[in-house]
Structures are given as C-alpha cells and as structure tokens.
Request: fold
Amino acid sequence: MNLAAQVSEPARGRKVLVVEDDPDLRELLRYNLTQEGLAVEEAQDGAEAMERIRRRTPDLLLLDLMLPGMTGLELCRALRAEPATAALPILMVTAKGAEVDRVLGLEMGADDYVVKPFSPRELVARIKALLRRAHRVEAEGLEVYERGRLRINFATYEVFVEDQRRELSLREFELLRFFVRHPMHVYSREQLLDLVWGRDTFVEPRTVDVHVRRLRQQIERNDSEPELILTVRSVGYRFNPEALD
Reply:
C-alpha cells in the first residue's frame, strides 16, 4: 500500500537517520521511508550514528535501543547533552514488552517510541507527527517568553533558568511551551496527549508523567517539591507562573 498521502509537506525531503544493526531491517526501513518521500541515511551502531550526526544533523533519528557498542540509550543521552542536537526529534525502537527500556528511553530524552514488530503505517504516522511538530516550531519565527528566572526562545529552542541553559528534548520543549501558553489551567494526561503529542500518536498516559518529571528536573528549583508544574490529584497538571515572581 502506498502511504504517501500520510506524509505532510513539511515531512517530504526531510532526512531520517536510521540507526539499526540488523541489515535486513535497515533495508526494509529504507524502502518504506523512501517510498514516502523521505531522505534516508543509515548507521549500524551508535558510534557511526554519532559521526554522521556531527557531519550533518538529520531532521529525525530513528533509533534502535539494542545496539552493539554504544547503546541507543547512551547515544540518546549524549545527543541531548549537546546544544546542537538537544532538540533533535528521536523516535526510538524497542522490543515488544520491554516497558523498562521504553521508560528509560523517554527519560533519556526520546520523543516517542514504536514497538517491534511495527507496521509501516504506524511508523510513518509517528515520523510524520514528530516532523510536523518540529516544522511548526521552526515556522513560528522569533518569540520569547521571559518571566522571573525562566526565559524561553521558541525560535531557537533555547531555555534558560537563572541564565543557565537547559537542554530539553523536542517533546519536553513542546510540553513547556504548551504549559506557559496555558497558565493555571488544569489538563488531564489524556488532554495533554491530544494537545501536545497529537491525536495521531499512540502512547500511554504514563508517558506524560515521564516527560513532566524530566521537565521538572530542568526548570524547578527542587523537582521533588515542584512550584511551577503542579500535580492536581486525580486530575492532571497545571502550570503556575506565579512561582516565577
């Protein structure tokens, strides 16, 4: 089946780096993604992927967590630590039932995950969603949010807390962006999945909790006693900008 209609214009021509040690699966991924108008590069391990990314940063990384040498988790953590790749969209691939790996991957900064075995339709939908969000942020132009100790540049993906730069993944950045634009309103996990992740993304509500925890670690004075992103028991989360004053 031709899935070209699923890929939005912002996705066409974008470069996806596939990091996978199985040559047969790499070939299958290349075939399916190029059929959808995406440019595909391949790497068989984390070291080769890092070398390719440093030469030219892709628009999205499709990353298998189980890699020889440098693991996918280690690569993800290294990329999030570098300013040039801190906002690189990362879609990780995990084995069926490996919930611990999925949670660890999200905590290391991955934006989304797909579980083997996966269908081409699901993979394209997830890639499309991540690229569309990245494109939307890029197209917004210069816009800065600044209040108290927090400063966010929505055009450059930069976040500063007390003049110290914080490295956020694309999904963490989008979640923070949503919170600051909708202060004091309480959103359930399901609402945040729809409004931040998108209706075409299929992840569990606990994914929201993982990203909120990581975001608190970046912007709160004490993430064990949060003041900015508050938990509303049995409901969800709300952003409290008054704690910045």
